[in-house]
């Protein structure tokens, strides 16, 4: 009998619908909600964020997982983590119960610097998204979102 393996099969990367342009210090913003039609159990998130003028070294840009139920049938209306909307929007209630998934740590107090990182997210659920909280002590760079990019790749286990 031949040995078998379970390998990670990654889908093509896609961008989150979330605007990071000018997010104020301590503000939270949610992405548009994604429907996990592939029923992928996990995803890899890649983040590229452009900081503003005079951020504080050692501060962070934090990422959180937002989940929701299907919002149909007996589960209507949709229930979302921290009452986030299903759109790219400010989270006026902030982050209370969302699961942390990672942080970009500002290594230096350099203006207009780009920070890049990636995070693996488990147990996505039927609908999900992310929230980003700016803790750099300054607003994020008010620049075109071409400099800010957050993408995801679904990862589905595949038997070989």
Structural features:
160 residues, mainly beta, Jelly Rolls, six-stranded antiparallel β-sheet, five-stranded antiparallel β-sheet, 0% helix, globular
Summarize the structure in words.
With 160 residues, the chain is an all-beta fold. The chain has a single domain, classed as Jelly Rolls (Sandwich), CATH 2.60.120. Helices cover 0% and strands 42% of the residues. The chain has no helices and eleven strands. The strands form two sheets. Strands 3, 4, 6, 7, 8 and 10 form a six-stranded antiparallel β-sheet that branches. The protein is globular.
**Spatial gap, N to C terminus:** 13 Å
Strand content: 35-45%
Q: Share of helix among residues?
A: under 10%
Mean pLDDT score, rounded? 87
Could you tell me the number of beta strands?
A: 11
The CATH architecture would be Sandwich
Number of helical runs?
0
Largest sheet: 6 strands, antiparallel
CATH topology: Jelly Rolls
Name of the CATH class: Mainly Beta
């Amino acid at each position: 009998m031949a040995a078998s393996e379970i390998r990670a099969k990654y889908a093509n990367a896609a961008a989150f619908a979330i605007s990071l342009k000018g997010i104020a210090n301590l503000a939270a913003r949610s992405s548009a909600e994604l429907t996990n039609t592939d029923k992928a159990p996990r995803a890899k998130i890649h983040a590229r964020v452009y900081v503003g003028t005079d951020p504080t070294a050692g501060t962070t840009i934090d990422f959180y997982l937002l989940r929701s139920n299907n919002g149909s049938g007996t589960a209507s209306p949709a229930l979302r983590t921290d009452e986030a909307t299903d759109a790219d929007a400010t989270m006026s209630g902030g982050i209370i119960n969302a699961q942390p998934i990672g942080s970009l740590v500002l290594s230096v107090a350099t203006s207009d610097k780009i920070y890049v990182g990636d995070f693996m997210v488990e147990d996505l659920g039927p609908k999900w998204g992310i929230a980003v909280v700016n803790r750099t002590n300054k607003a994020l760079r008010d620049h075109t979102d071409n400099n800010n990019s957050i993408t995801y790749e679904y990862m589905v286990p595949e038997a070989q």
